[in-house]
Specification:
Layout (H helix, E strand, L loop, with lengths): L6 E5 L5 E2 L2 E2 L3 H10 L3 E5 L7 H10 L7 E3 L5 H9 L3 E5 L2 H9 L3 E3 L9 E4 L7 H12 L4 E3 L5 E3 L5 E3 L1 H12 L4 E2 L6 H10 L6 E5 L2 H11 L2 E5 L12 E3 L2 H8 L3
Parallel strand pairs: 1-4, 1-13, 4-5, 6-7, 6-8, 8-9, 9-12, 13-14, 14-15
Antiparallel strand pairs: 2-3, 10-11
Helix pairs in contact: 1-9, 3-4, 5-6
């Protein structure tokens, strides 16, 4: 199935890397795919990093050929503008998320002025306080649409451990406000389609490889890509993805480079 694929789009957190460490065999297999002429892009739901920052990390970890790295921060400002017009946005998240929203032409609202917000954007916030959580929930409950880069509940890190993800914070805000969030990143289609455009490929010519059925596999299938679930632990139910691999070595064999 994968031998005919001209390109691959890889998820990062939990798939290509765990925190600051590449998954076993990932570096070698990705390099082999690149040398075989397969086109490669990287797609992450990270709400704290831009594409250039992710690309720099890939280079630092030895993948010097990495060129296409996309995150929801690439499009979140434009998504808010397209759906809600130029807005007054309360941002709960990293400085990079705030900068991305501002770059979309929006005004940033301070936490103390949350009642003036017309949109609330919530990402992973390592400095989250109850005050910030309450401000976001109150603004959303008052009618400001709730927008998020992703609803992933966990952020995988080294040693098989994890941090609470953006989805955990968004769930708290959405539950308190009684609303549903607008999701910008995976499994929604914009980032997948952007990755395919960067590769110059049609969906049927590429495979999406990731560790999440909910975001990677579901999103890839929705746009017509072949799907590969990276599941080094317990195998999922049959048919969960077009192909399930337990390791990057298995992926290499399926792609004809191992």
């Amino acid at each position: 199935m994968l031998a005919a694929c001209r390109g691959f789009v890889f998820d990062l957190d939990g798939c290509v890397w765990q925190g600051e460490v590449l998954s076993p065999g990932a570096g070698e297999v990705l390099t082999a795919l690149h040398r075989a002429g397969r086109r490669i892009a990287f797609l992450t739901n990270n709400s704290r990093a831009t594409g250039p920052a992710i690309r720099a990390k890939l280079h630092r970890l030895g993948l010097a050929f990495a060129e296409h790295a996309l995150t929801p921060l690439e499009i979140i400002g434009s998504v808010v503008a397209e759906r809600f017009g130029r807005s007054r946005v309360l941002v709960i998240g990293a400085p990079e998320l705030t900068a991305a929203v501002r770059a979309g032409g929006h005004d940033i609202v301070d936490v103390a002025a949350f009642r003036t917000a017309t949109v609330v954007v919530v990402g992973n916030d390592f400095e989250l306080t109850y005050e910030r959580l309450a401000a976001a929930a109150r603004a959303a409950a008052a009618g400001a649409p709730l927008v998020t880069p992703n609803v992933d509940p966990r952020l995988p890190i080294e040693g098989g451990d994890f941090l609470p993800g953006s989805g955990a914070i968004v769930a708290a805000v959405a539950t308190a406000a009684g609303v549903r969030p607008v999701v910008v990143g995976k499994p929604e289609s914009p980032l997948f389609r952007m990755a395919l455009r960067r590769l110059g490929l049609e969906p049927a010519e590429a495979a999406m490889v990731g560790d999440s059925l909910e975001s990677d596999v579901a999103g890839g299938r929705a746009v017509g890509m072949r799907t590969v679930l990276y599941a080094p632990g317990a195998p999922p139910a049959p048919g969960a993805a077009d192909l399930v691999v337990r390791s990057f070595v298995e992926l290499a064999r399926a792609a004809g480079v191992g």
